[in-house]
Specification:
About 0% of the residues lie in helices and about 45% in strands. The chain has 1 helix and 16 strands. The strands form 4 sheets. It has a 4-stranded antiparallel β-sheet with strand order 1-2-3-4, with no helix packed on it. Strands 5-6-7-8 form a 4-stranded antiparallel β-sheet, with no helix packed on it. The protein has a 4-stranded antiparallel β-sheet with strand order 9-10-11-12, with no helix packed on it. It is globular.
């Protein structure tokens, strides 16, 4: 959606911030991930402030394409063609830069039961498996889907549930992967009756308790 300047903007707020790509709430304030930077909106005061990053190569690129909360106080931040970072929302400091992150944006990050992070990238890219403690990639998860490799399916979302990883794809429906056995289960328009879903495009996965 397009972003409109409120009637009480922060004096330093740039007018051209483009699209809002994601919104996260923290302590009553809304963190807005936009093409013009990471903004923090105070709904009580109706003011905005910009969260600046001390990252040299992002100085000329303010496009924040993805944010996602990690626990209570941390925030994953993906800067377009400038890397993936973990931000402390209390101090405003970057506490982790994912080393040698080669992709331009992120779709979703989940932590599996074994502590490994699964990073869905979409756009003809593999799913990354990232070891946070060692700050290194464990693997590029290149697995054959029903018709195409995952790198061509475009994994749009991932969701961790117990010993399973669910993957929503752009063209091949929904998959469930068992972490221990490596078994796959497919849900889509060509699946069996009790596994049938009327779409090949699964962009978002959420749990409904």
């Amino acid at each position: 959606s397009n972003f409109f300047i409120p009637h009480k903007p922060a004096s330093s707020l740039h007018k051209n911030v483009g699209n809002i790509n994601a919104i996260v709430e923290h302590k009553g304030k809304l963190w807005l991930c936009t093409d013009g930077g990471l903004l923090i909106y105070d709904p009580v005061r109706e003011t905005y402030e910009i969260c600046y990053f001390n990252i040299p190569r992002s100085a000329t690129n303010r496009e924040i394409k993805f944010i996602q909360k990690e626990g209570y106080r941390y925030l994953w931040v993906s800067i377009y063609y400038c890397g993936l970072y973990l931000l402390d929302m209390e101090s405003g400091r970057i506490v982790r830069e994912v080393s040698d992150f080669p992709y331009n944006q992120v779709r979703r990050i989940v932590r599996a039961q074994d502590g490994i992070y699964w990073i869905a990238l979409g756009v003809d890219s593999p799913v990354l498996l990232y070891d946070f403690d060692k700050d290194q990639y464990q693997d590029h998860f290149q697995v054959a889907g029903k018709t195409f490799p995952v790198s061509l399916i475009n994994v749009q979302d991932v969701y961790a549930e117990s010993n399973y990883i669910w993957m929503g794809t752009r063209a091949e429906g929904l998959y469930r992967y068992h972490l221990s056995s490596g078994d796959w289960k497919y849900y889509g328009i060509t699946a069996k009756e009790n596994e049938y879903i009327l779409t090949t495009h699964v962009s978002t996965i959420y749990s409904d308790n």
